[in-house]
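hey m, so remember when u said the tokens were messed up on ur end? i reran from scratch. heres the input so u can diff it against urs
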Amino acid sequence: MPTYHEILTTDLSTLTTAADRWDGMAGELHKQETAYQRDVHGITLSPLFVGESQQAANGRFGIRLTEYQNAQTEAKAVAALLREANTQFVALRKKLESARDEAIAAGMKVSDQGLVSYDTGKLSQGDKQELAHDPDYQDSVRKSVASWQGRIDQCVQDVNDADKGVEVAFTAVVKGPDLGFGQVPDFNGKAQGSIEKYEADETKDIAQRVNSGTASPADYQELQRVFRDSAGDKVLSQTVLDDLGAKGTLDLSNSLDGLAYHSDKQHSGQYLDIQKSLAMTLATATQDPHSDFYKNFRADMQKAGTEQFKVDGLSPIPDEKVRGYQSLVTLMQQGHGYNGQFLADTADDIRHAEESYAAKGNLQSVWALRDKFSGKDRGWFANDPLDGVLGIMSQDPKTCTSYLDPAHSDNLNYLMNGRDWNTVVDHFATPPGGTTVGMPVMAEDGDSRTGFGAALEAAATGHPPLTSGQDPWPEAHHDEAQTRVMADVLDQLKPSSGTNAPVPANLRQPVADALGEYASDTHNILAGVDSHYITSSTVDGSVSDGHGYFTDGHGVHLSVDPKTLTQVMRGLSDDPSAYATLQKAEDRHINYEMDQLPKGALHQDINAKFENFGAVRGTYSVIQEDIINDDRMTKYAAADWKAKVAYHVIGGALTPLYFTAGAEGPSIAYGDALQRGVDTVTWDMDNQWKAQADNEANAKVADTFLSANKDLPLMVNGWAEGRSDIDMNDPKAQTRIADLTTAALDGQTRGITNARNYLVDTTN
């Protein structure tokens, strides 16, 4: 295995020199072939040479002539392999040299053996003293050294992987298919000048041994190396997968799953590492949707995707088999960086498979299994492959937006309304008499729609889904396609009758995260005074008709009907975390609007703005009220809901300076005045919260601080205290602050009235 020093000092030109000589050997062999054919083999073709001796001589001389030809083929193949090895090694050495040079430029030293250290010789005396006494500085240096060492080590590993691939090719190229005279191997007349082809052939052989349970530890190590090597190599990755084929790829992935999760758990790390590299090989191979490989592999997968496979230990149900697309997406979940077209095509093919299956009269999903596959121990298997591939797609927001945009396809409508999400056989109905097993009763799995929710959030926001601890930035800007997705989601979630908008549980938080980024628009919608939002809403038309959004000089704006918005927000708020996300986004928008008021604004005509603040917060009060008074809510459940809302509101405010900014960038800092407005409510609430011991007591804290009657005055007062242009001791200023608070509370009454009308069912 080449070391760092050997990689940088080896004269690689010897490879091309050797290649030239092998080509020269092929040329000399061709001369000998010509002479042999003329002077030896040609004698047997004379019309004067007949009989058994002629036949024997012709056969024997013909074999020798073929060996001359095969020897040329082998020599040319060796020459080609040498040149390919040179090309690979030169490129990989350049990567290593670049890593070394960049490390040095970043203040590191790299020894002749590739060891990285911090170059303190470039530091000033003051910097050296700081390094000696500052633990944070030392920790930063250690992390930087480790990072550069990891990069250089990876470059060395890449060369070693390539070197092993060259060894595999040279071992195989001299192996002839038959035996010659005296059991001496023939020259290889089928020799090929492609390292990738020989690695692919070896991989296929090992995969067959893995599937049959006869693979050795060395086989698994070689699989790790091949897939690690092919993960970033388009030619090698395509060659390997082309040899395996779609079915062979799925068989291998299923075998690795069976080993990792069932029959050999103690070595699960190795099997999952192989599978991860296999997934990355798939990602690399499918980067070009226009390549012949892509088209052929997709067509092959369309056949294998609905075939049935056995995965050892996957289910306690005897003879339970999974479909190919379930195995494919399980494999894909181990990788990343997939081409967007590949993700969309895979989703389309999975949808086509389930629609075709239903069209044949089947009453249950093509993905139906007699077991559940959610949670920590079971959720690794993609029993719902469409939901699974959408989850992968969520890391590619542009593809999500394109795939779900109602202006270009009905995918969003299919996922919201047309699809059968029941993929689990919950139980079998017992027919009258109870002597036989009846029809299967289907149910949704526990993680149903999690992938769809993630993709939907990415599609409507333009960035990957938020993670724990992140909050939506309410002033984010979105393009027309993203806004169209958001508008269509709200339009499709609204109740067809009555006021109840039941939102599937696993969609509530992602939809709330997305909607929170539109808080500047939802604020204006619920305030109900901006004519632009009124005339372009969805009340008289659908999103596909161009309703639901409009564009002005400030960008694209969401503009759904306020009744629809209120009812959907109510549906989302069954999840206390989703409700807290929406309210935090609204409160931050209010604070943002307050912070944008110019110097001297206190004594200007801004009452209407504060009235609108109150109107929207009034809507949130009614949503809280509607949830707490729901017939399904027990006293304990109501207390628990309020406590969880308060917990999420406090949790978001205790790290208040930066919030996720969505399409605006990674984070945006709040101004001091804006921050003070948030803190006035949340810090006081947090202090009382810490003194409580149970849900019921904490619910009382939530009642105190989450009502608009309490937090609107605190918010207005906190804003004023944070302004450098407002003298809180000035009686005139105190009067104006009271006026603005009154305006906000008056607006709250209007908001409460409207929201109650939206949430009261008058159809009965």
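this time it looks ok to me. The first strand starts at residue 108 and ends at 110. if urs says something different then somethings off w ur setup not the seq
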